[in-house]
Amino acid sequence: MRTYPLVTEAVQTTRRTELVDVTARVQQAVSATTATGGFAVLSVPHTTAALTINENADPDVRHDLMRKLDELLPQREPYYRHSEGNSDSHLKSSLLGSTLTVIIEQGRLVLGTWQAIYLCEFDGPRDRRLLIKVIGE
Amino acid sequence: MRTYPLVTEAVQTTRRTELVDVTARVQQAVSATTATGGFAVLSVPHTTAALTINENADPDVRHDLMRKLDELLPQREPYYRHSEGNSDSHLKSSLLGSTLTVIIEQGRLVLGTWQAIYLCEFDGPRDRRLLIKVIGE
Amino acid sequence: MRTYPLVTEAVQTTRRTELVDVTARVQQAVSATTATGGFAVLSVPHTTAALTINENADPDVRHDLMRKLDELLPQREPYYRHSEGNSDSHLKSSLLGSTLTVIIEQGRLVLGTWQAIYLCEFDGPRDRRLLIKVIGE
């Protein structure tokens, strides 16, 4: 049982809000280790981005998810004090969460048929980083 | 220090939205290992379900939690494109999260007096699965 | 590779809703171990508190985040049944989450430049506990 070196993946986003599928990149980082069973802990070192697991097939799900989040948390509120104009992005980051732990079994991420791992951009476009730390045996 | 084989628990839900207490089943999976200290990583391989930790006593808390979530995220929105009519379920899944890591100490899940682990159904009734992976020593 | 004894930190909150920066205390618990690489699993054993990672610099971000949460989830709703009057606190706890896993590298928590770890109080003032379990090598 051991930990593997931290892997950093660069993710370039292209819009203010966006869901970027990073599943293949995380699997690649796992496959580069000798771990057959264990976990991958994922983290984004940003306060206006997040990580989530959701539907990998119909892009309409991603549209609806981001559209509804924007409706609940619009960019402007009369009471917002933060001068950068991205308070909504910070709250979205905390609501979806900036870390994720995914089980590894037989060298593969354990995900359902319809699940993908997404880096959530809430204040792009920006250069983002995805950190991947594997522990296993 | 080692990982234990992945355990899969079947959970049958009976309504569209529902909180199913799975604490005893997770504790049972932990007790079946020789781990005295470590973690249990829990995951639901579904995109319209989630896992959360909340109040184990008064059922009114569960009612209020689900009722308010339904108010914030109603099933229909004029701008929803996803044809299955469960975009709200997908977003609820991402907001509550489909994975959880629980500390194990002296062979027991470390939870507060009032905490229980719930599988959250957001698009039932369905046959769900709860995955449990224990790491410990 | 090993687990380290569970550490419990006392956190005294002073208002109904509040974000308490606990980053230094978590780092201290990590530094007290011999772990150079691994993870810290954090947990609050409470159902009206949470843990989140967000902006460590401008206090206006924390204001805006809590203000918007209060607007989305006011303390009173005509349909709330829970007699303690803190149903909003329970839901906020589930939305932000009561556990967090943070990567450790070279003996340090791996956080972005602007990231801090916050204990979120949603029904204070209260005496809260923060549980820290380190695994590493």
Q: Features of this protein?
A:
six-stranded antiparallel beta sheet, Jelly Rolls, three-stranded antiparallel beta sheet, homotrimer, alpha+beta, 137 residues, elongated
Q: What kind of sheet is the major sheet of chain A?
A: 6 strands, antiparallel
Write down the CATH class of chain A. Answer: Mainly Beta
What series of H and E elements makes up the topology of chain A? EEEHEEHHEEEE
Q: Architecture of chain A, CATH level 2?
A: Sandwich
The backbone outline of chain A, from C-alpha atoms, is elongated
CATH topology heading of chain A: Jelly Rolls
Low-confidence region ranges of chain A: none
Which protein chains make the most extensive interface, counting residues with beta carbons within 8 Å of the other chain's beta carbons?
A: A-B, 36 and 33 residues
Number of helices of chain A: 3
C-alpha Rg of chain A (nearest Å):
16 Å
Structural class of chain A: alpha+beta
- Domains of chain A, number: 1
Distance between the termini of chain A: 4 Å
Summarize the structure in words.
Three copies of one chain form a homotrimer. Chain A has 137 residues and is α+β, with helices and mostly antiparallel strands. Chain A has one domain: YjbQ-like (Jelly Rolls, Sandwich), CATH 2.60.120.460. Chain A contains three helices and nine strands; from the N terminus they run βββαββααββββ. In chain A, strands 1, 2, 4, 6, 7 and 9 form a six-stranded antiparallel sheet that branches. Chain A is elongated. Chain A starts with a strand and ends with a strand. The mean pLDDT of chain A is 97. The B-C interface holds B 1, 37-39, 52-55, 58, 60-61, 63-65, 67-69, 71-72, 95-97, 100-103, 105, 110-115, 135-137 and C 1-3, 6, 41, 43-47, 72-73, 77, 79-84, 87-88, 90-91, 93-95, 97-99, 101, 131, 133, 135.
